[in-house]
Amino acid sequence: MHTYQRPYPKQIDSVSYPQGFEMPNFIKFTGEDARTTMEHIGQFIEQCGKAGSDDLLKLKLFPLSLSNFASTWYSLLA
Predict the structure, then answer these.
(1) pLDDT-derived band of residue 72, with 50, 70 and 90 as boundaries?
(2) How many angstroms separate the first and last alpha carbons of the chain?
(3) Pick from 1, 4, 17, 2: which is nearest to 59 by CA?
(4) Nearest-angstrom CA–CA distance, 12 and 6
(5) 51/45 Cα distance (integer angstroms)
(6) What is the CA radius of gyration of the chain?
(7) If DSSP codes are grouped into helix, strand and coil, which group holds residue 11?
């Protein structure tokens, strides 16, 4: 049985959001539609707003932009 673990260091989860940051309602990437991964990443960064310029925050937020097969794939990364 596989338990979920993020494929990045645990301390990333303690990175603070910028003041006034509102959690985006991410358009989910499933890997099942016509969008490419590059299109999804561009859209993800745009939806991050101010947090899109902070690599640590992007790592923290990225799993929230995935669902279905893409989310499963991400959770299985080493």
Answers:
(1) confident
(2) 15
(3) 17
(4) 10
(5) 8
(6) 13
(7) helix
Number of Cβ within a 10 Å radius of residue 65: 22
Tokens 């890997």 locate to 31
DSSP string, 35-71: --HHHHHHHHHHHHGGGGG-HHHHHHHGGGGB-HHHH
Q: Which two tokens stand for residue 19?
A: 């003041």
Kindly report the pTM of this predicted structure. 0.84
Asked whether the predicted pLDDT for residue 62 surpasses 80, the reply is: yes
75: enclosing H helix or E strand = helix 68-75
What average pLDDT does the structure give for the chain?
A: 88
CA 61 to chain centre: 4
Torsion of CA 38, 15, 51, 53, to 10 degrees: -70
